[in-house]
Write a structure and sequence with these properties.
heterodimer, A: 466 residues, B: alpha/beta, seven-stranded mixed sheet, 7 strands
């Protein structure tokens, strides 16, 4: 048998049909659904008189639109948002799919709820009408975002029409230095490869620094595979993975657990597997980083200076000029002197318990020096755990708003938005123009770095505070 | 049925930016719709309108010669960012049926084909020729022939492009790919039966 990558193995195990022209039907084990990219798909099913083929493999939760203020229990004020969430309520009911409504404690960001509830398992194919579906790759699952037409296709057929991607290996060798986190790894990789560096590939992250990460950290790394242009990012499952999964509500139990475990242990890339592209970064050399521009590839260590547009080539020269203008930054300015108005900690990238612990460690006994700061837990269960561990008290005493679960200011579809010119230290995943609100200026970073910025009121090297 | 795409002769609008992301194409406030239609007026909203909702005259699609554009010529990595199909819906609703760029983000590229839009990837130097052509405005129509897989300029230059055979077939015929897949229900049934044996925990 020819050697295979992890991606090859998962692909082969899910190939339901291959046509003569090479067009493949890939079987989908888990279909995650949220309110923004699904209403047109359900409507399409109804119009064509079709139904959901595998409702037991379909899981829905509202997250993008939901307010995160405590008064949301009284209902959603914005009429359009309310209609979208009500449409999901109705579609979940009509088609009999698993559902976590807004006021269920298990509600949260779809990519946090899936793993938390044990829906996401090693070796699965997982899709969702959301580009950050790559998050689930942390379990050694092939997981990627799809458009609404494909959501409808999966609902109707439980398959996707696919062509196979190429294999890319991203290896992070050695140990991370203190203050350096999974977010710094994933941003540094994008900084090195560019936002199109992964286009056409599925990335497997490996190496000692990846192995050393917790499951939460691995989810952070895979989450941003899409910002590097890859279809998916994944990490081979190991004992940490199995330990995280075991005992979750929808994880296999008893004899099925043993059978699953036997298969999961075969899910790794063979030693002599073929890689179409290999990128290697030294863990020791990764620094705490921030973004300075309007593309996630605009990444630099916190002790660097804002770059000069003329130091770039091709279309990037104009893009950087435009980005600096938008961001209100000057070439040569020290990143550590950039003043911050707002801090946002949360999102599917960094809204898990470990992220909140990292922020709390910096914030303990401190007060914020910014205009506003909010922490939005990734799920109701993360929120409850943070309260139990006393983290919520640390945040509130520091001056942070302590919110309910949702996507919130990551994409600002709900009322949590930046005003024009407002500068935000954010733990989310995109710094595009207008992403967090029209005219808003986003700097991406780790939760510890965002917490440090909240305390000093400027972009700050967290290593000075630990 | 999806709208067929066979040939197109139209005005091309130049948008010489790299990394045009889906938040630029259609900002999040317009994702609250539960319909596919009506998004064209908000295509490139933040570049196209000022804070008071007035048109910004300098933006390409606000210029008189490009208001009827059916083709968009843009820079590398077009459509990066989110999976929102609202991006191709907005492009199509505006009247654009074809995008030409050196490269695309994966999900956006696939989403185009589901909506009767042809995304053409050409080498940088050819895109630059077409960008210059597009800058001439209404006097320079670009012709696309999907069957022949060619892009032709008003000056008579012809560039060939690659496209996946299945995607091409679906666009040419305006096929609904869910219908095509449902015709293979036997294969899906057989796969499910096998998987129930080998991976019963799924």
């Amino acid at each position: 048998m020819s050697p295979k990558t992890l991606y090859d193995k998962i692909w082969d195990a899910h190939l339901a049909h291959e046509a003569e022209d090479g067009t493949c039907l890939l079987y989908i084990d888990r279909h995650l659904v949220h309110e923004v990219t699904s209403p047109q798909a359900f409507e399409g099913l109804r119009m064509a008189g079709r139904t959901v083929r595998a409702p037991d493999k379909t899981i829905a939760v509202p997250d993008h639109n939901v307010p995160t203020t405590p008064d949301r229990v009284k209902g959603i004020e914005n009429p359009e948002s309310r209609i979208q969430v009500e449409a999901l309520d109705k579609n979940a009911e009509d088609f009999g799919i698993h559902y976590y409504p807004v006021n269920d404690i298990r509600q949260g960001i779809v990519h946090i709820v899936g793993p938390e509830q044990g829906w996401t398992l090693p070796g699965m194919t997982v899709v969702c009408g959301d580009s950050h579906t790559a998050t689930h790759g942390a379990f050694g699952a092939l997981a990627h975002g799809i458009g609404t037409s494909e959501v409808e296709h999966v609902l109707a057929t439980q398959t996707l029409i696919q062509t196979k991607s190429k294999n890319m290996k991203v290896e992070i060798t050695g140990k991370l230095a203190p203050g350096v986190t999974a977010k710094d790894i994933t941003l540094s990789v994008i900084g090195a490869t560019g936002t199109a560096g992964g286009t056409g590939y599925v990335i497997e992250y490996c190496g000692e620094a990846i192995r050393d990460l917790s499951m939460e950290g691995r989810m952070t790394v895979c989450n941003m595979a899409i910002e590097g242009g890859a279809r998916a990012g994944l990490i081979a499952p190991d004992e940490k993975t199995f330990e995280y999964v075991q005992g979750r509500p929808h994880a296999p139990k008893g004899a099925q657990w043993e059978a699953a475990l036997n298969w999961w242990k075969t899910l790794y890339s063979d030693d002599d597997a073929h890689w179409d592209k290999v990128v290697t970064l030294k863990g020791e050399e990764i620094a705490p980083v921030v973004t300075w521009g309007t593309s996630p590839e605009d990444v630099l260590p916190i002790d660097a200076e804002v770059p000069d547009p003329s130091s770039f080539a091709g279309g990037k020269v104009d893009a950087v000029r435009r980005a600096l203008d938008y961001m209100g930054l000057k070439p040569g300015q020290k990143l550590s002197e950039v003043e911050i108005d707002t801090v946002f900690i949360g999102s599917c990238t960094n809204g898990r318990i470990e992220d909140l612990r990292a922020a709390a460690e910096i914030l303990k006994g401190k007060k914020i020096a910014v205009k506003r700061a909010m922490i939005v837990p990734g799920s109701g269960l993360v929120r409850a755990q943070a309260e139990e561990e006393g983290l919520a008290d640390i945040f509130k005493e520091a001056g942070f708003e302590w919110r309910l679960a949702g996507c919130s200011m990551c994409l600002a579809m709900n009322p949590d938005q930046l005003s024009p010119g407002e500068r935000c230290a954010a733990t989310s995943n995109r710094n595009f123009e207008g992403r967090q609100g029209r005219g808003g200026r986003t700097h991406l970073m780790s939760p510890a770095m965002a917490a440090a910025a909240a305390v000093t009121g400027r972009l700050t090297d967290v290593r000075e505070m630990i | 049925m999806m709208e067929k795409f066979e040939k197109l002769s139209g005005i091309a609008a130049p948008l010489p930016l790299i990394n045009v992301d889906t938040d630029m194409i259609i900002p999040k406030q317009f994702l609250k719709t539960i319909k596919r239609s009506g998004l064209g007026v908000n295509l490139f909203d933040e570049m196209r309108y000022d804070d008071d909702g007035n048109e910004i005259p300098d933006f390409v699609l606000n210029k008189p010669q490009y208001r009827e554009a059916q083709i968009l010529v843009a820079g590398d990595n077009f459509g990066c960012g989110s999976s929102r199909e609202h991006a191709p819906w907005a492009i199509k609703d505006f009247g654009i049926r074809c995008v030409i760029a050196p490269s695309y983000a994966d999900i956006f590229y696939n989403n185009c084909f589901k909506n009767g839009i042809l995304p053409i990837a050409l080498p940088q130097e050819q895109v630059e020729v077409l960008m210059k052509e597009a800058e001439k405005g209404a006097n320079a129509r670009i012709e696309i022939d999907l069957e022949a897989q060619t892009v032709s300029t008003s000056e008579g230059q012809v560039f060939s492009f690659e496209v996946d055979a299945f995607k091409k077939h679906c666009l040419l015929e305006g096929l609904d790919d869910i219908g095509l897949t449902l015709a293979k229900a036997d294969a899906i049934d057989a796969f499910e039966a096998r998987a129930a044996e080998t991976r019963p925990w799924v």
